């Protein structure tokens, strides 16, 4: 066998083991007995030790050195690119540091949960200091020998390769003032009426199945289950999603499902030739989020699709407290004050993310001390949202990302929204009768366009190039802002 064939065989086995680890996580979040947690931890540790050994195997370096890329096709060159980057990063972090990070972040999650429940930042601060210290050490190791501008940039590459804090700062700097101005206009207008009544949870689950199917989810290679926090898991031939139900808020299950369907359809629609390789999954967190957000928002919350959904709601639940499709469209898109990122509407969601992006860069790069985080958070929140944070659990302790060391992750949420704005513009240009399709509940034109222009390619291209290829232009915040301003001016009448 050639060095490339050896590399491909090694990578396929590693990816298969990674899928098994992912299935353990899915099981833990959905159906695992509560008393199995201790044993599951041992199972995770065992498979992760095998994966780590495979990812830093010196033989990988030898194969990569021997491969002549001039004789490879696009798939081969992309596989080598992914493998070089992964091997370089994995071998830079000392094994003892990786082990200590795993230990500390595992403990930190429990202490964070206690601190959040108590509304006591000081209970978590010492542990948080240790998490940040270790992540800075990891970032320093990853930065060595690269052109990354700072420690935060080095960590960010795990989630959005090729992106930088400076580029994001410029994009988000242009995004923020128009979002704040739009939010202020909306808050000064009359609020549309919301849904009333209670909604049977079994019927909600039945409706989620209808909607996932309407957006192209393949149930022969997937399933929907309940979980505390909705998520998508797996790729290729086994891609699963979860949702949650609330008898007083059916929109939560509806849009959680559509969001996770976007993630899952991306994975299901990648070229089958890429299965169990680094190309066989979404290319980055930002591109992945673009799929979930365009399914959920630009398509699922559109005037046309909500007209179809209004009929489905009436058929499933009867009276919902709203009499017209137009009023339902307004109810689905209500903008209301709130502290929690995961519950935020389209207008305010990115302001939550931008706050975290700015603060975490300062934390990792050393200009913001942990003891000063609550004050910095509360001050920024009041500036952007016009209200004071009432308690720490609604402030800087609300998310689990930082406690478990996920620095560099948050901006991919807003980057995904920006990408979705660009994709939506290109899609609308190519499919002028899109609304006529959506009002019938037919998303195949839109989802087919996304499959053809983006999803099928998986990790073939770098993240930014993936968006450029699909849209035909460089990513920009402008399409997203134009879409939001036009949509919400129409809903709120200004």
TrEMBL record:
Q: Does the keyword Zinc apply?
A: yes
- Top-rank taxon of the source lineage equals Bacteria
Identify the residues that bind Zn(2+). Answer: 259, 263, 289
- InterPro entries reported for this sequence: Peptidase_M32_Taq
Cofactor comment text: Binds 1 zinc ion per subunit.
Q: Which residues form the signal peptide?
A: none
TM segment ranges: none
Any idea of its EC number?
Answer: 3.4.17.19
Question: Which enzyme class, named as a word?
Answer: hydrolase
Q: One GO MF term, please?
A: metallocarboxypeptidase activity
Cofactor(s) essential for the protein: Zn(2+)
Q: Which family does it belong to?
A: Belongs to the peptidase M32 family.
> What's this protein's function?
Broad specificity carboxypetidase that releases amino acids sequentially from the C-terminus, including neutral, aromatic, polar and basic residues.
- According to UniProt, the name of this protein is Metal-dependent carboxypeptidase
């Amino acid at each position: 066998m050639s060095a490339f064939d050896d590399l491909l065989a090694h990578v396929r086995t590693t990816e298969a083991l990674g899928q098994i680890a992912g299935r353990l996580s899915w099981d833990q979040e959905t159906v695992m007995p509560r008393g199995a947690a201790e044993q599951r931890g041992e199972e995770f540790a065992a498979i992760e030790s095998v994966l780590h050994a495979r990812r830093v195997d010196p033989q990988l370096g030898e194969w990569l050195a021997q491969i002549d890329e001039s004789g490879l096709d696009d798939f081969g060159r992309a596989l080598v690119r992914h493998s070089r980057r992964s091997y370089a990063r994995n071998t830079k972090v000392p094994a003892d540091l990786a082990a200590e990070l795993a230990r500390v972040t595992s403990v930190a999650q429990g202490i964070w949960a206690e601190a959040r429940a108590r509304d006591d930042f000081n209970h978590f601060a010492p542990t948080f200091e240790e998490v940040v210290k270790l992540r800075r050490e990891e970032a320093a190791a990853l930065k060595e020998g690269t052109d990354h501008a700072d420690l935060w940039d080095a960590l960010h590459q795990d989630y959005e390769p090729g992106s930088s804090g400076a580029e994001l700062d410029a994009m988000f700097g242009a995004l923020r003032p128009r979002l704040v101005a739009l939010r202020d206009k909306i808050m000064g207008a009359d609020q549309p009426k919301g849904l009333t009544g209670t909604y049977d949870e079994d019927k909600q689950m039945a409706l989620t199945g209808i909607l996932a199917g309407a957006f192209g989810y393949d149930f022969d290679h997937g399933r929907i289950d309940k979980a505390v926090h909705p998520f998508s898991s797996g790729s290729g031939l086994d891609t699963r999603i979860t949702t949650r139900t609330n008898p007083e808020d059916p929109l939560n299950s509806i849009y959680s499902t559509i969001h996770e369907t976007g993630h899952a359809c991306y994975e299901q629609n990648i070229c089958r030739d890429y299965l169990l390789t680094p190309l066989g999954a979404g290319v980055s967190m930002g591109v992945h989020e673009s799929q979930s957000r365009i399914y959920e928002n630009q398509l699922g919350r559109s005037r046309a699709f909500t007209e179809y959904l209004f009929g489905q709601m009436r058929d499933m639940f009867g009276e919902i407290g709203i009499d017209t499709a137009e009023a339902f469209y307004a109810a689905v898109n209500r903008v209301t004050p709130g502290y929690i990122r995961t519950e935020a509407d389209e207008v305010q969601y990115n302001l939550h993310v931008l706050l975290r992006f700015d603060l975490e860069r300062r934390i990792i790069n050393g200009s913001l001390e942990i003891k000063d985080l609550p004050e910095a958070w509360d001050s920024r929140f009041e500036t952007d949202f016009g209200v004071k944070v009432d308690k720490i659990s609604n402030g800087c302790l609300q998310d689990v990302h930082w406690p478990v060391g996920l620095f560099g992750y948050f901006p991919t949420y807003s980057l995904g929204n920006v990408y979705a704005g660009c994709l939506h513009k290109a899609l609308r240009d190519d499919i002028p009768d899109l609304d006529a399709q959506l009002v019938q509940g037919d998303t195949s034109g839109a989802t087919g366009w996304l499959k053809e222009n983006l999803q099928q390619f998986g990790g073939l291209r770098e993240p930014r190039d993936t968006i450029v290829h699909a849209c035909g232009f460089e990513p920009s915040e402008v399409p997203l802002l134009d879409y939001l301003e036009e949509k919400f001016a129409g809903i709120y009448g200004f």
